[in-house]
Amino acid sequence: MGGTGTLKAVLFDRDGTLVVDVPYNGDPQLVRPMAGALEALDRVRAAGLATGVLSNQSGVARGLLTLDQVASVNRQVEQLLGPFDVWEICPHGPEDGCACRKPAPGMILAACTTLDIAPEEIAFIGDIGSDIEAATAAGSRGVLVPTPVTRQEEIDAAGLVAMDLGHAVELLLAGTPEEQGAPA
């Protein structure tokens, strides 16, 4: 995993990481930032790093959401948390076998292309195991910020676990996970 690259971007999972998870949310009025999300993003932006959001949106494949609804919710996320340099959405279902749906690395690699940076120069912060698996598969750094829905085995498998979003950003800005002595 890329401890050798200089950190140039921090990418975030949307639901359960940046905003409170509302399953299959198509209503911008239901968007609520996670505690500390704006402050964490402000720190990343102040450090001169690019930001991005990667989100599995299987509700599109399931017919529960339209891409317009997803875009509307994403616009509200930006209204509340500021602009992001890149957005990557996977509209596929788990059975579709696409290369973009986390834990596959496709969205991280697409963000790298958009930002013109290498995967080892990116960190990805998420709340479940598939977020960390996607980062690992891409060759990026992953930081898990557990929520009540995060399974214990996902926490145990993660190389770097943070108490909250602010702590995750603090760990990344302080140095590589290798330098931090990642908790078990």
What does this structure look like?
The chain is of the alpha/beta class and 184 residues long. Helix content is 38%, strand content 14%. Strands 3-2-1-4-5 form a five-stranded parallel beta sheet, with helices on both faces. Strand 4, helix 5 and strand 5 (141-144) form a beta-alpha-beta unit. The longest helix is centred in the middle third of the chain and has 15 residues, at 67-81. 43% of the residues are buried.
Q: Can you lay out the helices and strands and say which pair or pack?
A:
Blueprint lengths: L8 E5 L23 H10 L3 E7 L1 H4 L5 H15 L4 E5 L15 H10 L6 E5 L2 H10 L2 E4 L7 H6 L7 H10 L2 H4 L4
Parallel strand pairs: 1-2, 1-4, 2-3, 4-5
Helix pairs in contact: 1-7
EC number: 3.1.3.-
Subcellular location: Cytoplasm
Family: Belongs to the gmhB family.
Which features characterize this protein?
single chain; 184 residues; alpha/beta; 5-stranded parallel β-sheet; 5 strands; 38% helix; globular
Largest sheet: 5 strands, parallel
Low-confidence stretches: 176-184
Helix content: 25-40%
**Alpha-beta content class:** alpha/beta
Summarize, please.
This protein is α/β, with parallel strands linked by helices and 184 residues long. The chain is 38% helix and 14% strand. It has a five-stranded parallel sheet, with helices on both faces.
